[in-house]
Amino acid sequence: MSSEEPGLELGESLQRVADLKFALYHRPLHPELFRIHHSRHIERASYQADIWVIGLSHVLTVQSAGRCVAEVTTDDLEVLPQNGLVTHFQFRGERDHMEEFDDGMRYILSTQVERMNQNLFHASHRDLLNYGSNRGILVTFNEWAGENELVPFSFIDFEARDREFHVQAFHSFPADYTIIKTQSIVEVGGRLAPIRRNGQRRAL
Questions:
Q1: What average pLDDT does range 120-127 have in this prediction?
Q2: In sequence order, what are the residues at sequence separation of 6 or more whose Cβ sits closer than 8 angstroms to the Cβ of residue 38?
Q3: What's 130's DSSP letter?
Q4: 185 pairs with which residues across the strands?
Q5: DSSP readout, 122-174?
Q6: Pseudo-torsion of CA 67, 10, 136, 94, nearest 10°?
Q7: What is the mean pLDDT of residues 87-112?
Q8: Which of 84, 79, 80 is nearest to 103 (CA)?
Q9: What secondary structure, in 3-state letters, does 20-65 show?
Q10: DSSP 8-state symbol, 122
Q11: What is the rounded distance in angstroms from the CA atom of residue 180 to the CA atom of residue 172?
Q12: C-alpha to C-alpha distance for 58 and 199, rounded to whole angstroms
């Protein structure tokens, strides 16, 4: 059952690695669907982008001249709308995806679920915390740390180019010695004009 009513907030409680899913939308999503722990708004001449940290997951929205692409990592797709949903899948191993839209936008994604031994996880966890303390968005969740466990966190790094927005996200799950990584590129391109009589388009 899908819903866009407020009050159904994703990111309110600790997510589990086994439950995390990815969804891509060709539309913006309402912020009241989520428990947003941190947000960042970025503007460039050709687009604007919003990053929301929703626990150990995130929402990325890029809008340009009335066009929109939104990616979501979440543990519950049922409360999200079906309207505008392009694709979705469960996080497993490594996966790549590319989507080219008729309106000129292009979306490129790589994902990885990296399960480690304890020593390697502790080192990766430490390195990402140190790196994230000086750039991007780092949100720690001390209230979700188990006894004698490292603190779960979300770290999102981004680069805003003239017509491309690049994002790397790292969600750390100490109880599972696992980090979920996503790397996304949204290319806004040029907005396409209506089809001419000869069947060709031109970029505006």
A1: 97
A2: 52, 53, 137, 139
A3: H
A4: 108, 166
A5: HHHHHHHHHHHTSSSEEEE-GGGPPTT-PPPEEEEEEEE-SSEEEEEEEEEEG
A6: -80
A7: 96
A8: 84
A9: CEEEEECCCCCHHHECCCEEEEEECCCCEEEEEECCCCEEEEEEEC
A10: H
A11: 7
A12: 39
**How far apart, in whole angstroms, are the C-alpha atoms of residue 182 and residue 43?**
22
Q: What is the CA radius of gyration of the chain?
A: 18
Q: How sure is the predictor about 190, in pLDDT bands with cuts at 50, 70 and 90? A: low
pLDDT score recorded for residue 6: 42
Question: Given pLDDT bands bounded at 50, 70 and 90, which one contains residue 189?
Answer: confident
The token pair at 96 is 């790549």
What is the end-to-end Cα distance of the chain in Å, rounded? 39
- Phi, psi (deg, nearest 5) at residue 102: -65, -20
Beta partners for 73? Answer: 22
CB atoms within 10 A of CB 119: 9
Residue 94: what pLDDT?
A: 96
Alpha-carbon distance values, 124 to 4, 38, 69, 117, 157 (Å)? 37, 23, 31, 11, 16
Residues constituting the chain: 204
Residues 181 and 167: their CA atoms lie apart, in Å, by 10
Question: What's the distance, CA 184 to chain centroid?
Answer: 8
| Residue linked to tokens 């997951």 | 57
Longest Cα–Cα distance of the chain, Å, equals 68
Asked if the model's pLDDT at residue 186 lies above 80, the reply is yes
Q: Which two tokens stand for residue 29?
A: 């999503």
* CA 203/CA 54 separation, integer angstroms: 36
To which H or E segment does residue 127 belong? Answer: helix 118-132
